[in-house]
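Practice record 12: protein with fe (iii) ion.
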Amino acid sequence: MKLIDLHVHSTASDGSYSPEEVVRLAAARGLRAISLTDHDTIDGVAEAAAAGEALGVEVIPGVEISARFPGGSMHILGYFVDYHSGLLDARLAVLKKSRADRNPRIVAKLNALGAKITMEQVEKISGGGQVGRPHIARALLEHGYVRDIQEAFDRYLRNGGPAHVSKFRFPPDEAINMIREAQGIPVLSHPFTLGLGSAYALKNLLQDLKKLGLAGLEVYYPEHTPEQEARYLKLARELDLLITGGSDFHGANKPEVDLGQCPCQKNLTYPLVEALKAWRRQEYGLDEA
Ligand code: AMP
Ligand code: FE
Ligand code: FE
Ligand code: ZN
């Protein structure tokens, strides 16, 4: 078996395992390759890559950038990004600052609503990486204001919820460009979260995004129904987009998902990585991915 997982979060964003722990788990599960795709940051990649060297797991440098998309949630994965040059880091710094400004405002809203949690508690839960809503949700849970993470989102933190504060997002073309500037491969994450009404609308959007430089579509994902998976696979083939997939592992912050264990795992095999590498070689004229 040459199983892989191309969508994984660590404490560098809102996962509960450190980058090294994620790679250890991947090794224990016998995965050949994973991509660390933290939200809006590549801060965990160097640690994961070093652990991957030591443990014999191929670590693909990655990122998952939240892009501006009214009415839904658009995430763009970047694979094989050059994380040494500083170029991508400089672009992502804008997003980090926006998050840092936003978190205390969410906490202040929660306090006004009677949920008395503090930024210190939230930062402790985050484990040192950037803070996001899942950490705030955990703080609400630990202090008895909600019964589970989902209730924290449903009652307070969901988009448009009473404690929600929006953060800066790059428009899709800029998110795609910054990944390409770093010689990465831009891939649209979990297309169902876009909230599009029809398969026709998704096809149109994918065509537009492809013109902007999108190279792939996340077809295999735990929350995709068999019908969605089949539709996304068909679209990827029709539009000549690379096919990717992963568990979106967040450790304890998304307990229903485990690393390398999703029902879609059987489709997540090494040839997907080989296709990514071949695309990158051709697109950027690189000798080795
Ligand atoms: P943030 O990046 O701080 O806006 O937090 C986004 C993360 O929160 C996502 O990656 C999910 O893990 C989680 N999340 C967002 N919306 C929901 C929701 N409605 N229910 C549960 N988790 C959510
Ligand atoms: Fe997340
Ligand atoms: Fe995502
Ligand atoms: Zn994700």
